[in-house]
Structures are given as structure tokens and as C-alpha cells.
TrEMBL record, chain A:
Keywords: Amino-acid biosynthesis, Branched-chain amino acid biosynthesis, Magnesium, Metal-binding, Thiamine pyrophosphate, Transferase. Gene3D superfamilies: 3.40.50.970, TPP-binding domain. Pathway: Amino-acid biosynthesis; L-valine biosynthesis; L-valine from pyruvate: step 1/4; Amino-acid biosynthesis; L-isoleucine biosynthesis; L-isoleucine from 2-oxobutanoate: step 1/4. It comes from Acetobacter lambici. NCBIfam families: acolac_lg (TIGR00118). Its EC number is 2.2.1.6. Residues 20-133 form the Thiamine pyrophosphate enzyme N-terminal TPP-binding domain. GO terms for molecular function: acetolactate synthase activity. CDD domains: TPP_AHAS (cd02015), TPP_PYR_POX_like (cd07035). Belongs to the TPP enzyme family. This is Acetolactate synthase. The gene is ilvB. It catalyses: 2 pyruvate + H(+) = (2S)-2-acetolactate + CO2. The keyword Nucleus does not apply.
TrEMBL record, chain B:
It is an enzyme of class 2 (transferase). Residues 10-88 form the ACT domain. It comes from the Bacteria. Gene3D superfamilies: 3.30.70.260, ACT-like. Chain A, domain 2. This is Acetolactate synthase small subunit. PANTHER family: ACETOLACTATE SYNTHASE SMALL SUBUNIT, ACETOLACTATE SYNTHASE SMALL SUBUNIT 1, CHLOROPLASTIC. Its EC number is 2.2.1.6. Dimer of large and small chains. The keyword Glycoprotein does not apply. One of its GO terms (molecular function) is acetolactate synthase activity. The gene is ilvN. It comes from Acetobacter lambici. It catalyses: 2 pyruvate + H(+) = (2S)-2-acetolactate + CO2.
Amino acid sequence: MTRTTGSTTLTAQTTATQPGAEVLLRALVEQGVEVIFGYPGGAVLPIYDALFKQNHIRHVLVRHEQAAVHAAEAYARSTGKVGVVLVTSGPGATNAVTGLLDAMMDSIPLVCLSGQVPTPLIGNDAFQEADTTGITRPVTKYNYLVRKPEDLAPAVHEAFAIARSGRPGPVLIDLPKNITVGDALYVDAKSVTPRTTRMTSEPDRAAIARAVAAMKAGKRPLFYTGGGVINSGPQASKALRKLVDLTGFPVTSTLMGLGAFPGTDRRFLGMLGMHGTYEANLATHDCDVLIALGSRFDDRVTGRLDAFSPNSFKIHVDIDPSQINKIVHVNEGIVGDVGQIIDLMIEEWEKQPAYAHKSDLDAWWAQIEGWRALDCLRFGQDQAPDAVIKPQQAIQRIYELARQTGRDTYVSTEVGQHQMWAAQFFRFDAPNRWLTSGGLGTMGYGLPAAVGAQIAHPDALVMDVAGEASTLMNIQELGTIAQYRLPVKIFIINNHYMGMVRQWQELLHGSRYSESYSDALPDFVKLAESFHATGLRVTRLDQLDATIRQALEHNGPVLVDICVEEGENCFPMIPSGAAHNQMILGPEQEASSATISKEGQMLV
Amino acid sequence: MQVEVSGSAVISLLVDNESGALARIVELFSGRGYNIQSLTVAPVDEHGSTSRVNIVTTGTQSSIRQVKTQLERLVPVSRVVNLTAEGPYVAREMALVKVVSSGEPRTEALRIAQAFRARAVDTTASSFVFELTGSTDKLDSFIELMRPLGLVEVSRTGVASICRGPQTIQNF
Ligand SMILES: Cc1ncc(C[n+]2csc(CCOP(=O)(O)OP(=O)(O)O)c2C)c(N)n1
Ligand SMILES: [Mg+2]
């Protein structure tokens, strides 16, 4: 069962052989790799030795392999390049598994290089042996175990092609030590034909024409955009703006799609779904044409399926054919790169007879403005100088004060309430600035993601909006931040609870706060200082702005412990198993009466 | 939402003959909760570099469509055809059926085997091994008839399938 990866022609090869580790690095350089996030160990020492002897590729030493993957994810998402990870065999590879699945769920292009015991020892329970390809098969788009020297360079070239093509994702290459030590021939990228082109087809123009005709017939249309628009590249975001300009239709976005359309634009309704805005969710429920662009009808978006956008004509554009009709039956499915399809939609929109439902669209907008007037994100902050800070207040002020700096800003988050508030309050003008773990919801993502973003954009403002519980899951990355003097700003929204867990327990489990209290927390200020960073703490409203400003103005790493109200809940909320028009609103808005069914309790 | 009825489907794939390819396919089924009733795999091209996999699965039409598009995402998979959906096809499997009996049941077993055109590929004073090729239904009914006649062991290959007429899996 052996097969040379891709197909290689021998003509373009150089004649001399080199150690496999050097062949590997040469292939990485040819693929445009500038940075690797990694952690050494026995099985990858030959690769580290080769890294030592060259200066094309920079290695960033993390403090845990999971963090290497998250850093590479953020690097990839914020640059559009493929992120690269290097880990040793056994525990190095297993530590990377969570990150790989995170990248898989959020369609992030990565190549993870893992060391492996020498091929003659495979299967013998050798020291630090793991069946890495077996373990990572379900968490990668593809993986390789390189058994023969001649497969090495072709595997690397094909891995990059697979990682970035179609729906992007992580690819792992397992490298036995005898392969990296022994000699191999270099093969360049153009002599390898990757198996990525097999299933691709041209966009279906007739389907696009039918979709646009349905849009023209729409009286209550809505764009529902997702991470696919970001993955398609900045030109897709530009095309989306143009399409919205042309049509005048409202836009909502998934968590992963934030930034593809400017958050400050009047036609943006905010995020939809479980913690989406009132206007976005009601528009989704009531629209008559729903145009899904690079989004995948995730359960966090749809809520109760049989009540999801019940009366709309649904158009779904996705690069991955398996997403179409997976969860929601659509009327028009279009397979292809979403940026390209939007361009074709624009062409078609201009070709077809003019939009004839302007007055219906105006009425639709009036209805949306009515919903928007509820101001669903409004919260009641006590204005007394010594008042306890509301988490929403903290996040809103971080956003506003960061914006005032005028700097190009990248924001990562951990997972929980703070993540949802950040998604609600931060309004991004550009794609690739928002780094969050959507599909997997991985606590511990935010700090290493900030590392990756700051490495990729040394002059930008990089902030991590964190929860006190999540951030402890990869807190060791303060070491990486110190070593590389990364001026990352970490804002811990410290509510002394796993807030999102506490919120569900309050709403679904009779306020029995089982194991969700963040007990025995470290002194975050001293913790920061022990990692050579600046630590700040704020506990009262009148010091909030000054503290945030101080953090933003400091030119080194800062960790701010923002002690906030403990019991605050994140609203609006569509409880699991409820429909979009059954949102629970905050105390500031009228309490609506969504009842949570037993069935809802079983959903996660 | 309309309720969809479940049925079975025969899916044929062409796959690069590389290590882990079959594991990817099988894990896709188990990981996503699809059902495999039978599975066959063997190299089918002159170099032995491509294998054909035939899978019999059950599910609703939309879940079987999902299986197909999910299989198409796998890198080593170059072709996926739902033969049941694409028109007439031939599906055959082989069974080896061991019957241990004597007297009247033994004679009856032999008589039924002849009616099914099963061959006795091993015969002892107390046992037969019958070899039978045919559709899954035919094998099922043969095995049911043998059950009271001393059936002790069954080994089946699973289904090999191919579409009828001049077209091939390549030109769907
Ligand atoms: C690795 C991991 N374990 C558990 C969870 C489940 N979980 C989701 S949110 C959350 C609490 C997060 O608490 P914190 O970081 O303090 O954020 P908050 O909700 O308080 O803002 C937990 C435990 C998860 N998402 N990821
Ligand atoms: Mg918390």
C-alpha cells in the first residue's frame, strides 16, 4: 500500500541529495513559510538542527504545543497564509490535537509537522511513539506518515496545497527520525501535482442566475455571511460590500464572519444566532430570501431547526459541497469560492431587470429599524465613581478606547461570556482582525492566538479579551510573550466565574452553580509581573478608562485584571431548542417569555 | 418538514491505494453516525495503485447524499458513485455456508443447494461447505433455509457492484 504523494516527474529534481531535514526546510521556504511555531523534542532534533543552520525561517518557541497550533491559527487567519507548527513525537503530537481540531472546525489552513520514531521502530511501543496519523485522522483535512525519502518533498508541497485549497484546514505530516536524518532528493513544487483539483468544477452560472432572480423577487431579503467570506480573501469582503451597495439588502454575520462586512455600516445588523442581536435574529426569522454566503447553518446560528427562517427562499453559497443541504434544506445551492460567486452575482444583478420591490424593501428596513430601536445590547451601568464595573462596560470601553488610538487592531478572545460580548460590542471595519474559536469553542485559544497575531503584525495593536478561567488554560504563553517582547494587551474580564457555565446553570439548572466558581485564582497582577509583563488591576468604574488607556499606551506586554460584576448574563440569548423569535432579552429590555423545554436542556 | 423513508444504497468508490485510505472511509461512517452494512475493497487497476471500495449503507435519501459529498472530500478518494441512485447496476456477493447434519436434513440441504445452484466445495460424512454467489437477497434466503438443516457457520464477502451497460464508474 504505498503510493508516492501526488505525482512527481523526475526531470525538475536537483541531482544531489541532502539530509531530509534540509529537504523539508527547503520545501517550506519554497512554500513561502516565514515563521514556524514549535517546541522541540528528541524526534525532531534533526529538524531543529537544520533550523539552527539557516536564516530564512524564524522559529517561535511556545510553551505548550496546543499553544503552537493556536498561534499558527491566528497567524494564518490574520495574514491569509498557511500557519506552520512543529512538534515532537508522542506527547508533542497529542498536545497538538485540540488545536488541530480547532483549525478543522474553523477552516484554518495549517501544516503541522510532527516527529515520529524511526520507521523500523514504528509499532514497537518505542519511547515517545504514538500512532499520530491514527490519532489525528479525524482532526485533520489530511495527514501523512512519510515512510520513504522520495515521498518527503512531494508530501510537503501537496500538504500546503491541501491546507489552502477548497475549504481550508489543517494537514499533518508525521516525520520519522530516520527520514529527517537520512538523505533525500529535493523536488520542487511545480513538479508535484496535488490531488486537490480532482473534484473541482466551474461555478454553475444557471444556478447563480436563478439565485439572483430570487433576490430580485425578494421583498424582505437578508444576507447571512460567514467565515467563508474571510477565507476567500480580502477581495471577497470588497465584493460583498459592492453587492450590498448594489442591492441595499441588510447583512447579518456569524461569529466567524465578523469583519467581512464593516460592523459600523448602517446595513449591518450585528451577529445572528444564540447571542446575536434582536434585529439580526428577527430579520432571519422573518425574511423572505436568505442569502447564505460562506456560512454553514451551525446549530449556534439556527436555533430550533424547524423554526429557522421558516418562510424564506434559501440560497447557499459554499466552497464545500457537503455543507449544502447538510442541516437546512436550501432552494438554491451554489458550490464555489464565495468571492468569485459574489462577483458573478454582481454581474448577474446588473444584467437582470431592475429590482422592482424598492418600497417593500423600504418597509422591511423600517421594520428592522423598529427592532433595532429596542437597543438589545443596552445594559444598566451604575454611574457612581466606585460602582462595580459591568463586563459589558469594560468590553465596550476597551473597544472604544482602542479605536481612538487609530491603530490597526487585532482582537483575540477566549471562550465564554466575554467572547460573546466582544463579538457584540466590537465592530470591525476589515476582515482578518477578529480571532476567536468558533466551531470548537476552545478555552485557552486567546492568549496563544494573540502571540500568533503579534508575531505576524509586529506593529499592530493586538489585544486578547479574556475570561479569568479560560486564560489559565494557556497562561504559560506569558513566557512566550516575554521572550519575544510581544506588546500584547491582555484584558481579563474577571467575573470570578466560568460565566457562561454559570449563566446556563442559572437558566437551565435552577441556579445550582455546580463547580463553576473560579476559586483560588492567582493574583493576576503578580502573575504578569513574574512573567516580566506589566500587571494592572481595576475594580471601580471611575478608574476603568484610565486603566485601559494606560495599558494601550504602554509599549510592552500588559495584563489588566478587570474585576467585574459576577452575576451578569449575556443577552440576547436564544436558549437551546428555541426559535429565533423566542429570544430572552436583558433586564433593560422587556423580559420576554421564552420557555426552555426539556429538549432544550439536552442540547449543549 | 417531511418525514423521509430509509432505504439502502450501494456506493462505489475509487480510492488511491495508500495506507490509511480505508481507515478514513470507515472512520467517516462511524464518526458521522452513518451505517455500513457491508464493505468490500480490492485493487482494480493494472498497477495496483487504485482500489475499488463498495459500501452498502442505509439511510434517508438526504443522509445518503450527505455520505456521498462527505466521501468526496477525502483526499485519496477520486470517484464516488451512488449506484442505487444512478440507474441499473449489478450487485453480487459470495457466501460460504457450513451445514453439519445427517439423515433427512442432510439430504434436504443438498437438494436446496442444488435448487440454488450452490456448489459443495467441501464435503465430509457429517458436513458440507456450500459456495453460493448471487444477490444479497438470494444469499439471505439460502441461509434462512439452511438454518433448520444444521447451519453452523457463514462467511460472506460483502457486495461487489458495477453499473449495467457500457458506461463505467469513471463517466458518471
Ligand atoms: C477547553 C474547554 N473546556 C470547557 C469548556 C466549557 N466552557 C465554555 S465557556 C466556559 C467558562 C469560561 O469561563 P471564563 O473564561 O471565565 O469566561 P466567562 O464566561 O466568565 O466570560 C466553559 C467552562 C470549553 N469551552 N472549553
Ligand atoms: Mg469568568
